[in-house]
Amino acid sequence: MKSLFSGAMHKAAKLTQNQNVIEATRVIRRALSGGRENSSWPTDTSSEKIQRIEPKQTPAEVAGFARAGAGIGAEGAARDFGFNPGRVKRPLGEILELLRTPDLPGFGLPSKPAVKARSAPPVPPDGAGFLTRTFACEAGSRDYKLYVPSRMKSSKRPLIVMLHGCAQNPDDFAAGTGMNLLAEEHGFIVAYPRQPTSSNPTACWNWFNIKDQMRDIGEPSILAGITRHIMAEFDIDSKKVFMAGLSAGGAMTAIMSTAYPELYAAAGIHSGLAYGSATDLPSAFAAMRGNPGLAEKTPKRRRSGKAGGVRTIVFHGASDQTVHPANADRIVAAARAELSDPELEIEQGQAGGRKYTRTIITEASGVPHVEYWAIQGLGHAWSGGRPEGSYTDHQGPDATREMLRFFLKRPTPTPR
Prior knowledge:
disordered N terminus; alpha/beta; two-stranded parallel ribbon; ten-stranded mixed β-sheet
């Protein structure tokens, strides 16, 4: 068993080097199960199936990270390298780094950069700019790209902060989502913070570290600082500040909307996980698989102070093999729990060649508070995305445009 597992780890490491972490996940899962496929992971979803929104687990029990760039079997891998996951907790990035370490016994595989741009970023139109900046504060510093459209409102502009997934960067994420094109069309500003490989080997936001799930410390403090700095410089409308993210970026978006509910008016979470899903490596992998119960000392959920908390729109592929779709259920359940008298509406439709189920939850006043798009046939990718970027699927509902609609459409209470 030891030699079989070591062989599996060697193969998984090579796959990880080549950015094929989904297959690496499958290789280790088979090794841990004695060569059998793990039947607990969803492989097929009928177009007639309506995704549940009432999970048996609480939001604090599960949730987490994402992207096809950081998903390997946690407990078995840790034990094979001499670590006891019950005693020693290692961040996700450290385990991924182990698979890249040249002097690791039995491997000796060269390290490769975690982030590569798929193509050069498009040239902004005349009068627009896609600027590279740096923000620094007591918690640290981050580079970020800032898209300033050629035509903007004279004052009180909207701002959307976009958080990329693992093994992505701002240029890649901007190209894949097409958000800059909509910014040019509607006259809003977009910021793309960059997670450097010095902070995480695969450029993942560290959603699974406790210190990066709290207000005014760690990565949340830096991201909030970037947001506030842009707001002050560009006379941003404080009621139209939004954040959206994919995978690990989606998980960090859930953290930010919980830690800073007064700063963000709405959140968009694509293929992500709920706040408080993980506090270490084992609980991170468990959350990604959809299994609750391993998160320890989860930070207490900060009450928003606003009725119903932060409005949230969620997208998740029903065929996502990297982050279990149950995580979307838990995001929705957490948002719904903020409402005193919610009403639920479920509709089914088709867009871009894919069927979807859209769940809309409204608060007592009739304002839509949560939207959940469960998309049939979609894997771990941005729905309706552009081929110029990574982790996109050109089929399905246009997640970028739907998020923007949800963000900018001013909630209007309607009588019931």
